[in-house]
Amino acid sequence: MTILDKIKDLNNKRIDELRTINDKKIVGWICNYTPEEIIHAGGAIPYRIYPGGDEDTPASEADNLFFSRICPFARAILGYKLTGNSLDFLDGVVSAHTCDAIRRLLEIWQIHLNKPSFIYQILLPRNKTKNGVNYFEKELTKFIKSLEDFLDVKITNDEISNSIGIFNETRRLLKKFQEKRREIAVPINSIDAFEVYRAAMILDKEKVNDLLTLLIKEIDNYPKINGRKRILYSGSILAEQDTRIQKTVESAGGMVVFEETCTESRYASDLINEEIENPVTAIAEYQFNKIQCPRMRETDSRSRLNYVLNAIEDYKIDGVIYHTLKFCDNFKYDYPIFKEELNKIGIPILNLETEYGVDLGQLRTRIEAFLEILGD
Fold it and tell me: Which element (helix H / strand E) includes 130?
């Protein structure tokens, strides 16, 4: 069994494993602005909640409690909670206030559902300013107090600093892994890369760090993939089963080599500054200084666009697929800006909008046509 096979196996068994754990609380988190390090420092197990994306995603099951014309990702999470036991292993749920859909999701969960008992929303300012950082640091302090009460522990700065070190190592290793995909002969396809990032968000970080260290050494021996058009994905979140675009691109003869999304490359784009004395301050500054989600208002730069432009050059990208989930306004607003800048440098861009659980025929047709445009 290769390390990659082991990672896939652990991912698939993770929820069953978590259901057997009795000595630690399991705290699910949704948004990338949620401080995993603080959950880990409290002795709980952080687990990213991002189910859905395939044809069986029960987004419509949430329509009795959720407005139907709203983000399918948020509706899917609620749908899974309503239709079965797939999220019953969670002792708590936490998210930053990313957007109105996630905000309403947690409010509905708290008002209408009786488990888990700990549901917490961290207020996140939109303005990327010093005042915003200071406000968010105060919100993190409030969160720590609530988490301490829930877990019946005292979370110290030393424990938070130790967790920051562990999580930073995960980010460093993911960046090394991602750099392997810059090669002309790619040693791993996009579906398998998706599983590597998935492991980093649902498995124990200490175990993930060991696996990533071994994978980075082993990956050079994998069969190489060459001669395909190199695609960059940018846009809405790719949920846990949402590999529709990658699979379609690969079946049509292309290869996604870079995914600019909070569940892949942007998850590990930056490090927390471990030199800052107060670790809570360090986390707050990290969240405001990293490559930003479009829900943030940036007055000084366009970090996500620049991140994509740099990746286009570094990864020798032939074309960009810009994907938005239906009703995901934050990412939709950014598309005209991306299109204008990519036109300036001669990089073709395909805009896709999708919903979960719909026929893939149209998606396949458009991607195949796009790859044909890119030529030989």
Answer: helix 130-151
Does residue 89 contact residue 252 with C-beta atoms inside 8 Å? no
Which band of pLDDT confidence, cut at 50, 70 and 90, is reported for residue 278?
very high
Measured at the alpha carbon of residue 303, what is the angle toward residues 297 and 309, in degrees to the nearest 5?
140
User: DSSP string spanning 265-312?
Assistant: GGGGS----TTSSSHHHHHHHHHHHSSPPTTSB-SS--HHHHHHHHHH
Per residue in 178-217, pLDDT (tens digit) is 999 999 889 999 999 999 999 999 999 999 999 999 999 9
| 212 domain residue, yes or no | no
Q: Burial of 45 by CB count in 10 Å (0-12 exposed, 13-18 middle, 19+ buried)? A: buried
Q: Kindly state the greatest CA–CA separation across the chain.
A: 61
User: Can you tell me the distance from the alpha carbon of 223 to that of 333, in angstroms, rounded to the nearest whole number?
Assistant: 40
Long-range contacts of 163-166 (CB under 8 A, 24+ apart): 163/36, 163/37, 163/38, 163/40, 163/41, 164/37, 164/272, 164/274, 164/279, 164/282, 164/283, 165/274, 166/40, 166/205, 166/206, 166/209
Structural domain of residue 109, as residue ranges? 26-159
Q: Whole-prediction pTM value?
A: 0.95
Q: Could you give the C-alpha distances from 158 to 133, 161, 162, in angstroms and in order?
A: 21, 5, 6
3-state secondary structure (DSSP) of residue 340: helix
87 in any annotated domain: yes
- Assigned token pair, 47: 């687990």
Instruction: Give SS3 for 79.
Output: helix
Question: Residue 73 in contact with residue 236, Cβ under 8 Å?
Answer: yes
Average pLDDT, the chain: 92
Q: What average pLDDT does the segment 291-304 reach? A: 78
Residue 89 lies in a domain: yes
d(CA 247, CA 195): 13
Strands (E), the chain: 26-29, 45-48, 92-96, 118-122, 229-235, 254-260, 319-325, 349-354
Q: How many domains does the chain divide into? A: 1
Kindly state whether residue 144 falls inside one of the protein's structural domains: yes
Residues 29, 36: contact at Cβ < 8 Å? yes
Q: Which CATH number does the domain housing residue 146 bear?
A: 3.40.50.11890
Rounded Cα distance between 252 and 262, Å, is 25
